[in-house]
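Case study.
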Amino acid sequence: MSVEENKKNHRRIIEEVFNNRDLSVIPELVSPDFAYEAFYGKFRGPEGFRQMCELQNEAFPDLHYTIEDIVGEGDKLVSRLTWSGTFKGNFGGIEPTGKHIVITEAVFFEYKDGKEKSSLAIADMLSFYQQAGIKPFENKGDN
Amino acid sequence: MSVEENKTLIYKIYDEYNKGNYDIYDECFANDFLSYRWDGNVLDKKAYKQMLLGFKEMFPGIQRTIQDIIVTEDRAALYFTWTGKDNYTSRGHTPTGKLLKVNELYFIRFKNGKVSEYRQYGDAYGMAVQLGVYVEANKVNK
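After joint prediction, the assembly is written out as follows.
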């Protein structure tokens, strides 16, 4: 698959799956080999991707991504994204605060047969927690 | 420059950085280089090098390992991990000497055979947790 086809796949996942909440297209776009690990779970294959989306949608019902930039080569692609969402539901054990959060992130993707296989995200989680108003946050030595 | 030349330039910068040769930035960065950080700060060529020198003090033995790289004719995306010992003294932190491991992802632009722009994304939160400055949010009150 070409870089352009991988970019098209990425844009569809962002627009259709994340922004429009259409989880039915996930098997078309996500590889059976998909693997992703985060503090809120380990996700494998299209079914794992769907579970990941459901957890995110429950926590942030108005979750929205904007693609700022994409660089691709071969079966790899890196995307710069702006993420926003209102923290309405439990997220990986963190209780919601109702705050609206906007952060930037960069994600390194790998593709197989034109489908997303893995991703590594570097998101501005410091800003996420600060905007979420989550406290106590500083380690006072009692944890 | 060709894709291969761009790739060679990036590896050369990181190899020299790991040897402690920070003058490589004078040679390989354009004079109008700018680094846009995820927190909104923008560093010019001189400020970027100063930041690296500060990191060398804060994290002795610092080394950068390129994990993966995507290169085109005028751009690149670089995923690397740095390791270094905790000699961090800000925010009332007492250095522990513990080895830290932090991921970063950069978007890079090239101009006339030199690096002209970085857009830096670093796992500052992961670093703060390793330093013990912060507690992982999902482990607070548990």
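Observations recorded in class. Chain B has four helices and six strands. Chain B touches chain A at residues 3, 38-39, 68, 70-72, 75-77, 79, 103-105, 107, 119, 121-126, 128, 132-142 (CB under 8 Å). We will return to this complex in the next lecture.
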